[in-house]
User: Fold these one by one.
Assistant:
Number 1:
Amino acid sequence: MSEMTRRSVFLDEIGLGPLWLRRDGGLASAEPIEADMAPAEAIPAAALHGQQLEPVMQNRAEISAWGGDEPISAPPAVVHAANSPAAMDWTQLQTAVAGCTACGLCHGRKNTVFGVGDSKAKWLFIGEGPGRNEDIQGEPFVGPAGKLLDNILLAMGLKRGDNAYIANVVKCRPTDGTGRDRPPAADEVAACMPYLQRQIELIQPTILVALGKTAALSLLGLDPATPVSKLRGTVHRYADRPLVVTYHPAYLLRQLGDKGKVWSDLCLAMSTYANAGE
Ligand code: SF4
């Protein structure tokens, strides 16, 4: 089975087919990017951009989840009680996360969810935070959304643990007063972001893919009112690395009609990766 056929099979399997081929043999979007999904202006990264390893996010509002475009509320101050992760190696970082009490999410967790995959991966996928299944298993993206992400990775010629690493913005599960999953609050994102920043520094990925609104806004330091739809279709930069934004798989499970848009985003990511010489 050729590479192209294999991808087509996977795309069909996850409902992203048909896979259109350009005359030059390259991949084309399963559906065109809509006019109202035009790239946002190039937006300068704010304080969370790479070099800044101390928690900031002072002007960041509470971020809404799973790629939705809901309005969000005002930011709390940032407190980070842990030692700075900036100088930690991989093992030290894992240990620090496992014992972290830098924000209130530590109280309700069963497990911290550090990340999973190839620690030297060229592809880094970043989601929002652990849900119930992830909290129980200590691994990101398990359950239906994880299965969808795995199939997307396969369609891209990747797989969990092989040139791909998967992490979240926060390492502990955020829940509301009824025990249901919720988006992390601004102070929780700010407290946890230094861990992700250090993971990125240690992994040295060629490209980052932000899965959903929380990941995109956290990494790019954008106005929290920015909808995901305005972030798609362009290549952003994070710490001098390309970053492509797409919808979170959990959102995609609820909005099956947007799968073609996700494939468009991933085609952009793959062409960006190829142009980076990898
Ligand atoms: S979410 Fe992050 S900062 Fe908060 S307790 Fe967990 S590991 Fe620490």
Number 2:
Amino acid sequence: MPHIGLSRVSKQFPGGVRAVEDLDLIIPDGAFMCLLGPSGCGKTTVLRMIAGLEQPSAGEISVGGRVFDSVARGCFVPSEERGIGLVFQSYALWPHLTVRENIEFGLSVRAVPRAERHARVADVLRLLNIEPVADRYPSQISGGQQQRVALARMLVVSPQVLLLDEPLSNLDARLRLEMRAELKRIHQTLGSTIVFVTHDQLEAMTLGTEVAVMNAGRILQVGTPMDIYHRPANRFVAEFVGNPPINIVPVRGAGAGRLGASLHEFARRRLGSAADAAWWIGIRPEAVRLGGGHGEDRWVHPAQIETVLPTGPTWIAGARVLDATLFGVSFEKIAAGPASCSVRAEDLHLFAEDGSRLEAAPRPSEVGV
Ligand SMILES: Nc1ncnc2c1ncn2[C@@H]1O[C@H](COP(=O)(O)OP(=O)(O)OP(=O)(O)O)[C@@H](O)[C@H]1O
Ligand SMILES: [Mg+2]
């Protein structure tokens, strides 16, 4: 299966919009790469360039070692010669063809024999749970069903590279979950390289073997979901990924207060010289322990739990500590009132003035050297 390489790719639209800026990205063979980022950050543009629906203004794109775009060499392979399956945010089904005919269309143009065509269409109809609407026209089915027909139409031709642009956005929660599981299974069985665009961080984290976080036309971090979550490369990534969002406490500069000072002092003691340069400390809500928790490796402080938001399985609590509020999340019931708040040193994320991550290294005295 082919890998996809983007090297120094930029895209400037007529009128001056710079949608993608100097982007480098390698999507390995058989990866399930999720492009994650806020609306307007350039995700769809990246996908459209890989598909050949948009030409880069600079840089090079290759798939499976074959150069599809090279601005410097004046090379551009048209979309239909790229052998790439696509499902876009706005999926246009043929209105005059039934669901079954829409799905079969791609096989007919590839001259697949009739019996095989029918068998493959029947398989994907079943897979995506749209058999009951197979003989209706697109205008006679729901948005979620249309989305599944668009997916079916792509899957039926078994492409080696699948580009999916928010393909699950019209589905309700239950179907979304089922389709995510289905996509993951399809990826494991087909072994195809998948590029999946979403602005939903949970979707990216649950589906991707790798996640590329984008903002303002640039890639801020590429890594496994665990990397992205536990070692965010900068403040933007830390704040974009995770729900409820990470607590960010200013420890230097105008915004820094007493909570920041206390955490900073602890971090400097425990985490070495990286903490000296920190401007912000990030703490994920599940790392904020309210009640219990003590010991050398923890920052501990009295707190007042002011708000409790039950989500069903968890409780989100807003705790006033010194002059600021920290949000914590717990699987055990939390009640408003006084509590002890604690955080382990290893759960503190340190960020420099420019927002980049500072890697903590415990001082030699702390590791017994
Ligand atoms: N054809 C175009 N002409 C001019 N500007 C465009 C064009 N297509 C996209 N843009 C601009 O380029 C930027 C990136 O757009 P893009 O569609 O790639 O974002 P996105 O990350 O997919 O957003 P969303 O999550 O909302 O779909 C935006 O500022 C958008 O307005
Ligand atoms: Mg988009």
Number 3:
Amino acid sequence: MSISSLMPVGDSTSSSRPRVGGAIVRKAKLQDAVNIFDLVNSLSGDGTLLPRNYAEICENVRDFAIAESESGVFLGCGALHLYGPHLAEVRSIVVKPEAKGQGSGGKLLQALLEEAEYQGVASVCLFTRIPDFFFQFGFRVVDRTVLPDKIYKDCQMCPRLYACDEVAMVRGPLPRTAVLGPSKISEPELVKLQTGTIPSGY
Ligand SMILES: CC(C)(COP(=O)(O)OP(=O)(O)OC[C@H]1O[C@@H](n2cnc3c(N)ncnc32)[C@H](O)[C@@H]1OP(=O)(O)O)[C@@H](O)C(=O)NCCC(=O)NCCS
């Protein structure tokens, strides 16, 4: 079942909505973009999340699910980016500090995985510093070179390119093709993992 079918926007009384710890997960609306922007960027300074600008969030707001309290208080968000039938990516998944540990993050992730399934995408990837959270949802650590689309979308422009401390994870089969770069890239062209100085200002 997809986010769309589980969480109809504007139907605040739907009893079909999944609830965990009082939280409701639904598709994001454009009006949620400010909350998404503020929360995601509150954790981008230290590299926990990639920074997202407001225009980009508005443009891609249909990628997002949000968690909110029964009274409509914004608790967190997560996005599923579709590269194509071969690969999707969980991005910008975050819960407000005061709402952590109450099931919202797990429910958001589950909704994004159901959306991937609805879209017919078996392979879902992400980069993270907290693999333990994702292990329990079926993700495993992989070599990042198997994800050229992700590398070309984000890493090549990232100031942490040569000092990345995130691990790549995949749920489902490894993607067998890519749309943003060559389908096979040699290791040296990709993210060199080495300890180094993170450029100032990031
Ligand atoms: C990661 C995050 C979204 C989890 O949200 P949450 O609402 O606290 O998670 P939940 O309450 O749904 O927890 C679900 C399960 O994951 C576990 N878990 C939560 N955070 C975890 C973490 N950082 N590491 C390992 N396990 C974690 C919980 O213990 C729980 O396990 P249980 O079901 O056995 O009790 C939240 O901690 C967060 O916003 N972190 C900062 C942003 C971030 O790092 N995002 C990931 C970027 S890739």
